[in-house]
Amino acid sequence: MIKTTFAVSLLALTGHAFAQMSPVGLWKTIDDDTKKEKSLVRIQETNGVYSGTIEKFLDPATKADAVCDKCTDERKDKPILGMTILRNLKQSTDDKTVYDGGDIVDPNNGKVYRSRLKPVDGGKKLEMRGYIGPFYRTQVWLRVE
Question: The whole model's pTM is what?
């Protein structure tokens, strides 16, 4: 009986650790220039496809009714709050710790970048990398939940 309880407990802990290495959850974004907290983005998974939506603004200078006036796709002139900024990411077949193949929009300039996510530091942080051609920028997001 004790061995069975131990095995079940071990499996539960392993599952929890694996779940934390997933990008699914609520993440705090940090502004590249000011280093201040910018927003909360919730990443969800549906049928193996990951997407992220802006759930809350943390920067008091950001207006709650701000729209993406510089976006050039279907998000043009849509509210930034509630906007899906990360789309179509999937777990890499080469490296199971990486999620790529999708894109991210920067609502400040409307540019769409190819994207890659990688949970690090035991899932407490998320490296979010955006690419245009050979150029890229990496932000570190912090797990909230």
Answer: 0.84
